[in-house]
Write a structure and sequence with these properties.
The structure is a single chain. This protein is of the alpha/beta class and 334 residues long. Helix content is 43%, strand content 20%. The strands form two sheets. Strands 3-2-1-4-5 form a five-stranded mixed sheet, with helices on both faces. Strand 9 (257-261), helix 11 (268-281) and strand 10 form a beta-alpha-beta unit. It is globular.
């Protein structure tokens, strides 16, 4: 079976062809077009601009990736995300599915980030804990099985990636903020400046990062001049919260494996510290990180999720497909 994946939830236009058979995957082609340079002058993604870029770029990528190939099914991100961006992918998928007479899979963006880990490790044991850390989402998800999800907690305000961008802006650094802060942090002392760890001791699995951003805002002018130290302290505060919540959830739900997803999971310090925590405090748990390029939005993860839906006969006709910018992971269960 060959699945065409389409991803346009935010500012990456992505397509992929995935060959899937009996739970094994072969990635035939994968293309991603980034809009970072376009949105950088604005310090963030402008929804209308992102949608216009998808309109221009998606037909070109499809022509390049498909050639004479006729896929057996199409998997497309239908939410959550920017509605203006989502609709470009959704309408394109509907048109192709109608023309070719093939089934469609409506894929949740968060589920796709989680299931991309099965591309690398198809033998992950359940229950599994999933941590999503991206520009728009920070969530802990209990994966009872493929297609069975419980949302344990999410951010109440800023997602981690959004907070990185805003702190970078406060410090006069470039966009996107994650790579900028991680690079400066390499030269800094995380203990030189004291910053809070919001909700780290809360009796739940929710997150809050707006207070951490505000703490950076109210640092003294002299402290803010020590850019590397501020970046190191801020990054360490974020990592400490994510690790603490992940450790607590793993123990409470007695999970057997842990998976990760989202663009911020490409952060080297976060991956290193998380791996160290698992290996020292949770030696009974298997774990899987996507490759750094697979952490950011891509269509391969959408095609992988599409395969699992197809296996459970969870497909729809093109007339049934729509986009939902607020589609939550706990509403996905199938």
């Amino acid at each position: 079976m060959i699945i065409l994946g389409i991803e346009t939830s935010c500012d990456e236009t992505a397509v992929a062809l995935l060959r899937a058979q009996d739970g094994t995957f072969v990635l035939e082609k994968n293309l991603v077009s980034s809009q970072i340079d376009i949105h950088a002058p604005y310090g963030g993604v402008v929804p209308e601009v992102a949608a216009r870029e998808h309109i221009k770029t998606l037909p070109f990528l499809l022509k390049k990736i498909l050639g004479d190939t006729r896929p057996d099914a199409i998997a497309v991100t239908a939410g959550p995300g920017l509605i203006t961006s989502l609709l470009i992918g959704v309408q394109t998928a509907k048109t192709l599915a109608s023309a070719w007479g093939i089934p469609l899979v409506r894929v949740n963006h968060i589920e796709a980030h989680l299931l991309t880990n099965w591309l690398e490790n198809p033998h992950l044991a359940f229950p599994t804990l999933g941590l999503i850390v991206s520009g728009g989402h920070t969530e802990l998800v209990l994966i009872k099985n493929i297609g069975e999800y419980d949302l344990l907690g999410r951010t109440r305000d800023d997602a981690v990636g959004e907070c990185f961008d805003k702190v970078a802006q406060l410090l006069g650094l470039g966009y996107p903020g994650g790579p900028e802060i991680s690079q400066h942090a390499l030269q800094g002392d995380a203990l030189a400046i004291i910053l809070p760890r919001p909700m780290i001791h809360a009796d739940n699995f929710e997150f809050s990062f707006s207070g951490l951003k505000t703490a950076v805002l109210y640092l003294s002018p002299e402290q803010k001049k020590r850019t590397a130290d501020v970046c190191a302290a801020f990054q360490k505060a974020v990592i400490d919260v994510l690790i603490s919540k992940t450790l607590k959830a793993t123990r409470m739900y007695d999970v057997r494996s842990i998976v990760f997803g989202g663009g911020v999971m490409a952060n080297t310090a976060l991956r290193t510290e998380m791996q160290k925590m698992i290996e020292t405090q949770l030696p009974q748990c298997a774990y899987q990180f996507p490759g750094p390029n697979a952490c950011t939005d891509n269509a391969t993860m959408v095609a992988v999720a599409g395969y699992f839906h197809i296996q459970k006969k969870d497909t729809i006709s093109w007339q049934q497909l729509d986009g939902d910018p607020n589609w939550e992971i706990e509403q996905v269960n199938y």
